[in-house]
Specification:
single chain; mainly alpha; 62% helix; 4% strand; membrane
Length: 591
């Protein structure tokens, strides 16, 4: 029963907060609505490639065990592909209802086939699995992320309330609710939001430890920090913030700073708790697949130092672009201003200053690490945005106390503009270009109509989940008139980009091919084949109108005022990558 005491205390704390703060329920409700609006987008397809693998991870273990029912098969299943830490456990829990239905309907073989993919192509893997399994499997994993996102908002409320007062907690929670980066990742099954949730929990207990000096709170911080790392290695910043918390508490020790800091047994216990949690959180460690874990470390520390093949830019460009996209221009200015203002207050002797120091050190560590990477995406910067929200909320609360009129005006501007930015992006989930193209094909393609598209991965395509799809990686023009599909779907990345000049970018240079360019241009011009353009979806690339690239400042400004410019922050979704053209056959291909 003692094991349940922490959960009872947590439940009691949540209940007390909801009763004491009449605004908190509405903030959490807003976070829930924004995080879950149109959360079924793209189903039964995937938001990103990573989302597919997070859903498939636990099924790989199931499939391996079914193929060879013995204890050693568990470790073999964990090492089958890339297991991404505790995200596998979360996905396994979310997939239980799908497994139950599969068992009840004798569909277990099809469900297990989700975990057998190394010997088949992406398209075969996607199409042979029933659409309802992908739909409900991915949706349930996304909903788990939605719950974690709402949890992040609440934990930030607790941090702000503990550091200063409930007004500060409300402001921090409201700002995080309208932070677009959080809403993006709540709409995708992955490890970023769960890792952030436990990172924030670790920071909360670190703050409570500084406030009270109770060792147990430090240990809780170590535990949740370990869970954050088990979801995502970047959660290791939690250990740095706990270290700062320990030093700050030592400053208040009656025994003096040196004796308060030198507590070997205390620190060793915290380290042991964190390491044990990490070991248990990584299936590859817990179930004896060290090679897979070593590969995970190698990918984490090695791949980021290599430039991305599609967009080769310096790290500052990636950081700035992803930061502006993730929070929007007004909030980006506010967060930066709040951090600069906080630097003048870190010397103060108060709990709020202690919290500022921990958050700013965390931000500094993240940025120092990212500065050595050759590409940084929006999801990498999610913890930075959350920590800066805490810093900004403390600064704004202080401004409202000292200059009420100015403080209220600044808060109103930031909340309204950020809500508009995040709200516009969230509403756009209901009208994604690829989903619009799929909707057209579902409504107009007949039972025997072939749909031809050119992409290696269905995640990049805009086609229904049907065996009528003829997916060809690479545009093959020579035999097109003999195939004569009813519909052709041209996507930006593997079709339209052939029309870009070689100077457009690395990807355009790689795709340089005169024959393929002529085929795509003939389709779009509607003058060689009996096809007409049935629909264009998404923002048209500038090079189709003969325009060059926009200046750098315009591109950076656009990503901070148009929330759909860079979906998810992944390189494969840089705005125009959603551009899709659907062509419909109007007659026979041969006379």
């Amino acid at each position: 029963m003692a094991l349940l005491d922490p959960f009872r205390r947590a439940k009691r704390q949540v209940g007390d907060d909801l009763r004491a703060d009449p605004y908190l329920p509405y903030i959490l409700l807003a976070a829930l609505l924004l995080s879950s609006f149109w959360v079924w987008h793209r189903l039964p397809n995937f938001a990103t490639r990573d989302e597919r693998w997070r859903v498939v991870d636990p099924v790989e273990v199931l499939a391996t065990v079914l193929d060879d029912p013995r204890l050693g098969s568990v470790s073999e299943g964990v090492g089958y592909w890339r297991t991404y830490g505790s995200a596998m456990y979360l996905s396994a829990l979310a997939l239980i209802p799908v497994l139950v239905v599969a068992l009840a309907t004798d569909a277990l073989p099809a469900f297990a086939d989700m975990g057998r993919h190394l010997d088949v192509g992406f398209w075969t893997h996607w199409l042979r699995t029933p659409g309802w399994m992908w739909t409900w499997g991915v949706l349930l994993v996304r909903l788990a992320n939605v719950a974690m996102a709402v949890g992040c908002v609440y934990v930030v409320y607790r941090i702000g309330t503990t550091l200063r007062d409930r007004a500060t907690g409300r402001l921090a929670a409201a700002l995080l609710t309208v932070t677009w980066a959080l809403l993006i990742l709540a709409h995708e099954g992955g490890e970023d939001v769960p890792s952030l949730f436990f990172l924030l929990l670790s920071l909360y207990f670190a703050v409570r430890y500084v406030e009270t000096g109770v060792d147990r709170l430090f240990y809780w911080g170590a535990l949740f920090g370990g869970v954050s790392i088990a979801f995502k290695l970047s959660g290791g910043v939690s250990a740095v913030m706990l270290g700062v918390a320990h030093l700050q508490r030592a400053r208040r020790s009656e025994a003096g700073f040196v004796r308060g800091a030198l507590r070997p047994k205390f620190l060793a216990t915290g380290v042991l708790i964190g390491v044990a949690t990490i070991a248990a959180g990584y299936p590859s460690i817990l179930f004896g697949a060290p090679t897979e874990f070593a590969g995970r470390l190698a990918r984490a520390f090695g791949s980021k130092s290599q430039p991305h093949g599609w967009l080769v830019q310096p790290s500052w460009w990636w950081i700035l672009r992803s930061y502006l996209h993730g929070v929007g221009l007004p909030l980006a200015v506010g967060l930066a201003g709040g951090a600069l203002a906080a630097l003048a207050r870190v010397r103060e002797d108060s709990l709020a200053a202690d919290g500022l120091r921990m958050a700013l050190v965390g931000v500094g560590v993240y940025l120092a690490v990212f500065s050595s990477w050759r590409y940084v995406r929006t999801h990498h910067l999610l913890p930075v945005a959350a920590l800066l929200v805490v810093v900004l909320a403390i600064g704004l609360a202080r401004l409202r106390d000292r200059r009420p009129a100015v403080g209220r005006a600044v808060v109103a501007v930031l909340l309204v503009t950020s809500a508009a930015y995040a709200g516009a992006g969230t509403l756009a989930y209901a009208s994604q270009p690829r989903d619009q193209a799929v909707g057209y094909l579902q409504a107009n393609a007949g039972a025997d109509d072939t749909i031809e598209t050119y992409t290696l991965d269905p995640q990049d395509a805009a086609v229904p989940h049907t065996d009528r799809v003829d997916a060809r990686f690479g545009v093959s023009a020579d035999t097109f008139e003999f195939r004569c599909p009813a519909f052709v779907v041209l996507n930006y990345h593997n079709s339209i980009l052939y029309l870009a000049p070689d100077s457009w970018g690395k990807r355009a240079e790689v795709l340089s091919n005169d024959a393929v360019e002529a085929h795509v241009r003939a389709l779009l011009n509607e003058d060689t084949y009996p096809y007409e353009i049935a629909g264009e979806y998404g923002r048209e690339p500038r090079f189709l109108d003969g325009k060059g690239r926009a200046p750098m400042y315009q591109r950076l400004l656009r990503v901070s005022v148009r929330p759909r410019t860079m979906q998810y922050g992944d390189p494969q979704d840089m705005g125009v990558d959603q551009y899709t053209v659907v062509l419909r056959r109007t007659g026979p291909c041969q006379e």
